[in-house]
């Protein structure tokens, strides 16, 4: 079928349609439609359902363009992926506007459909488990959602924590104060925070204790209310540590537990608290679980290839071990 739609012209033509109409050509490839922009109308040709989706995507792009924002092909692909599902205003808002993190206009946007689904689960549930390989954004996105809720006044503080697992060296023999000894374990959490906020904003929040970054052992005996609490590298918690952490959940608080069960550094024979928690709580409706795969890695392109090679090697090794 063929359909003509009127569009207001109060937007930047190149920003919306792309250089040489590259944005329109991308939408055409994704939805198998033909798009013909004219002076104040756009003609669509294709299946009715696909024309409706294409028109909706262009409307979202126009909204972005009115804010003088650059529209990337990655964002258009995310809009397309979401159009394949029954969406809501909140989901469209996350895609087109992102989650506002601070008064300085810092914004967090999902980079693929799985990141969007993960953000939605965190916003929906008080307790979310995220499992998957390094580089999928498990902790980074959780920190971003925490900053968004802090900015909106829905929580009063953010607490980031990790288990301190000694790998080959005893902390007692490492040089420096206790803070200097544990700093390498907590550094990735600092890095995520600094990537999302300006340095002075991070410093301000840390100094007034709105944001706290501490080892897991510091959580014992506390009740964490009106807070967003993130436990990173949870595969390295013991079962008792995980129980201790989960029972810290207080009123009006959210918890996100992230980890990679293929990267457990606990001493041989010790069960991972994360693995046990997955088995214990998988069927509880109030608790959300989200699993990322190697295809969700958003770091350097080589990281995904490296993970694929290691996974193949491990699978091949397992085949050799289990040969009759």
Topology:
Layout: E1 2-6, H1 13-17, H2 22-31, E2 34-37, E3 41-45, H3 48-66, H4 73-83, H5 89-96, E4 99-100, E5 107-108, H6 113-124, E6 127-131, H7 138-151, E7 157-162, H8 178-196, H9 199-207, E8 211-215, E9 227-231, H10 239-246, E10 254-259, H11 273-281, E11 287-291, H12 301-321
Helix pairs in contact: 2-3, 2-4, 3-4, 4-5, 6-7, 7-8, 10-11
Would you give an account of this structure?
- By secondary structure, this protein is α/β, with parallel strands linked by helices.
- It contains twelve helices and eleven strands.
- It has helices at 13-17, 22-31, 48-66, 73-83, 89-96, 113-124, 138-151, 178-196, 199-207, 239-246, 273-281, 301-321; strands at residues 2-6, 34-37, 41-45, 99-100, 107-108, 127-131, 157-162, 211-215, 227-231, 254-259, 287-291.
- The strands form three sheets. Strands 8-7-9-10-6-11 form a six-stranded parallel sheet, with helices on both faces. It has a three-stranded antiparallel sheet with strand order 1-3-2, with helices on one face.
- Strand 4 (99-100) and strand 5 (107-108) form a beta hairpin.
- Helix 4 packs antiparallel against helix 5 (89-96) and helix 7 (138-151) crosses helix 8 (178-196).
- The longest helix has 21 residues, at 301-321.
- The protein is globular, with a radius of gyration of 23 Å.
- The protein starts with a strand and ends with a helix.
- Residues 166-175 have low confidence and may be disordered.
